[in-house]
C-alpha cells in the first residue's frame, strides 16, 4: 500500500464510521501512483458509484492538505475494468485533460438514474436538451436550487451524455473551487497562460457551485474573459448554483448579466412520492429489497435534501449487510434513531384541516364540503397538498378524508399548489409557514 493512500485512509477514519470503512474501503488496493495521479482498484464494483459520489470530495480535501497540486487525479476502477481496458485506461500525460474528464464524471450520475418529478421536470428537460445539442441549445444553461436537490447529478449527466454521443468533443467538468484553486496555482507558478489554454480550448465547460466565485475579484476577472471567449465561439457553458443569478452576492454585475443570457432552470424540494421513487430506484440499482413501509419511513426523514435520504438508506443497507439481517422497520428505526432532528413528524389529516381552516377563517366542515368558491377551494387545495406531503396518505385516502372527493381532484389540487409555489413567493412562504407549525 502506498504511503499516500495510507494517509488518505487515516484521515477518512476521522471523518466516517468504522462500518463505512469496512464496507467501502477494505478491499481497495493501489494500482498505480505518480506525481500527477493515484489509481486505485476495488474488487466489489457495485459500490464504486456510491464511493465516487459520497467520498471523493473528502478524499480530494485530504489530498489538497497533503500538498498535492490542484489537478492531482484520483481514479477508482473495478477489477473488470482493469482487465478489459487496461491499455486505454493507463495514464497518458499528453492527453490528461480527457482522462481527467472521465475521472470526474460520476458513473451513477446519468439521466437514466435521475428521477423526474414536478420539482425538477423543467431543469431535467433543459439538461437533456443541451446534452443532445451542445452547440445549438441554450447558452449558458444555469441550474439553481438548494443543496442536495440533484444539480450536480444533472451536470454530470450532461457530461456523460455528451461523451457518449459525441466523444470527439473536448469537455471540461469542474467545480468553482477547483477552477479557483487552479487559477491561484497558475499564478504562483507563473503559468496563467497554461491555465487559460486549459479552460478556453474546450467545446463544453461545465462548472458546479458557481456561487463560490463571489468575493474572488481576480478569479472573477479570469472567469469573465473565459466565459466571453467560449460564448463567442458558441461553446456550451453549463453552471449550477444554490440561488438564482440576481441573488448572487459579491459578484460583478457584468458576470450576473451573462448568466441571464441563456436559460435559467430551478430545482425545488421533491414531493413525498418523488422522494420514495428516488429511494426505490437507488435500492434497485444497489440490488437490495427494501419494504415499502421502510421506504416511507426514510422518505419522511428529510423533505429537502436527496443526499440525506440516500445517506439514510445507505446506512440501513450497510448495517443490514454487516449484521446479516433483513431490512425491516425495526432495523430502520435503530439505524436512523439519531436523525430525529431531521425527521418530518407525521401529522394527522384532521390537524392539517383545522390549522388551514383557522388560518383562512373558515371551518373544517367548509374544507370538506362541495363548495367550489375560491374562498373555500384554495384553502382546501392547500390542505390537500400538506396532507400529501406530511401524512403519507394515498390520493384516494386523502379524497375520502376531504368529503369523498375523487383522487383525480386531489391530484389536481396538489399539482396546482406545486405550480403556484414555483411562480408565487406568497404561496411558497404560506406553505413553509404551515409546515413549520405542523412539524
Structure description:
With 439 residues, the chain is of the alpha/beta class. It is 56% helix and 10% strand. It contains 21 helices and 8 strands. A 5-stranded parallel β-sheet has the order 5-6-7-4-8, sandwiched between helices. Strands 1-2-3 form a 3-stranded mixed β-sheet. Helix 8 packs antiparallel against helix 9 (192-200), helix 12 crosses helix 13 (292-299) and helix 20 (407-423) crosses helix 21 (425-438). The longest helix has 18 residues, at 48-65. The N and C termini lie far apart (50 Å). The model is unreliable at 87-103 and 340-345 (pLDDT under 50).
Helix and strand arrangement:
Layout: H1 3-12, H2 18-25, E1 28-33, E2 37-42, H3 48-65, E3 73-78, H4 79-89, H5 96-104, H6 121-132, E4 141-144, H7 151-165, E5 171-175, H8 176-188, H9 192-200, E6 204-208, H10 217-232, E7 236-241, H11 253-259, E8 263-266, H12 272-286, H13 292-299, H14 306-323, H15 329-335, H16 349-359, H17 364-367, H18 374-391, H19 395-401, H20 407-423, H21 425-438
Parallel strand pairs: 2-3, 4-7, 4-8, 5-6, 6-7
Antiparallel strand pairs: 1-2
Helix pairs in contact: 1-3, 6-7, 8-9, 12-13, 12-14, 16-18, 18-20, 19-20, 20-21
Amino acid at each position: 500500500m502506498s504511503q499516500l493512500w495510507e494517509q488518505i485512509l487515516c484521515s477518512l477514519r476521522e471523518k466516517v464510521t468504522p462500518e463505512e470503512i469496512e464496507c467501502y474501503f477494505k478491499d481497495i488496493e493501489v494500482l498505480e501512483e505518480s506525481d500527477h495521479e493515484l489509481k486505485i482498484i476495488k474488487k466489489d464494483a457495485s459500490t464504486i458509484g456510491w464511493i465516487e459520489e459520497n467520498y471523493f470530495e473528502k478524499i480530494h480535501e485530504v489530498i489538497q492538505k497533503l500538498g498535492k497540486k490542484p489537478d492531482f487525479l484520483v481514479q477508482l476502477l473495478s477489477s473488470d475494468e482493469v482487465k478489459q481496458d487496461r491499455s486505454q485506461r493507463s495514464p497518458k500525460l499528453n492527453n490528461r485533460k480527457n482522462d481527467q474528464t472521465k475521472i470526474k464524471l460520476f458513473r451513477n450520475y446519468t439521466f437514466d438514474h435521475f428521477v423526474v418529478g414536478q420539482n425538477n421536470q423543467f431543469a431535467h428537460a433543459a439538461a437533456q436538451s443541451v446534452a443532445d445539442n451542445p452547440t445549438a441549445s441554450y447558452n449558458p444553461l444555469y441550474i439553481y436550487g438548494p443543496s442536495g436537490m440533484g444539480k450536480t447529478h444533472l451536470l454530470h449527466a450532461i457530461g456523460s451524455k455528451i461523451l457518449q454521443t459525441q466523444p470527439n468533443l473536448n469537455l471540461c467538468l469542474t467545480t468553482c473551487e477547483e477552477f479557483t484553486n487552479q487559477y491561484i496555482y497558475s499564478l504562483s507558478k507563473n503559468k496563467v497562460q497554461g491555465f487559460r489554454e486549459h479552460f478556453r480550448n474546450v467545446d463544453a465547460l461545465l462548472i458546479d457551485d458557481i456561487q463560490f466565485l463571489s468575493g474572488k475579484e481576480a478569479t472573477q476577472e479570469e472567469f469573465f474573459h473565459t466565459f466571453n471567449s467560449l460564448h463567442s465561439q458558441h461553446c456550451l457553458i453549463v453552471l449550477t448554483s444554490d440561488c438564482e443569478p440576481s441573488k448572487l452576492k459579491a459578484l460583478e454585475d457584468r458576470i450576473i448579466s451573462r448568466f441571464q443570457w441563456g436559460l435559467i432552470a430551478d430545482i425545488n424540494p421533491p414531493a413525498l412520492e418523488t422522494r420514495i421513487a428516488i429511494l426505490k430506484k437507488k435500492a434497485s440499482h444497489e440490488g437490495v429489497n427494501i419494504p415499502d413501509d421502510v421506504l416511507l419511513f426514510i422518505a419522511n426523514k428529510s423533505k429537502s435534501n436527496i443526499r440525506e435520504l440516500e445517506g439514510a438508506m445507505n446506512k440501513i443497507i450497510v448495517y443490514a449487510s454487516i449484521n446479516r439481517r433483513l431490512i425491516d422497520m425495526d432495523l430502520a428505526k435503530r439505524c436512523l434513531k439519531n436523525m430525529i432532528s431531521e425527521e418530518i413528524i407525521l401529522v394527522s389529516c384532521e390537524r392539517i384541516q383545522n390549522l388551514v381552516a383557522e388560518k383562512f377563517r373558515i371551518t373544517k366542515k367548509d374544507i370538506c364540503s362541495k363548495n367550489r368558491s375560491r374562498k373555500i377551494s384554495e384553502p382546501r387545495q392547500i390542505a390537500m397538498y400538506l396532507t400529501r406531503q406530511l401524512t403519507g396518505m394515498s390520493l384516494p385516502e386523502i379524497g375520502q378524508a376531504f368529503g369523498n372527493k375523487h383522487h383525480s381532484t386531489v391530484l389536481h389540487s396538489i399539482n396546482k399548489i406545486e405550480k403556484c409555489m414555483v411562480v408565487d413567493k406568497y404561496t411558497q412562504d404560506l406553505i413553509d409557514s404551515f409546515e413549520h407549525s405542523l412539524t
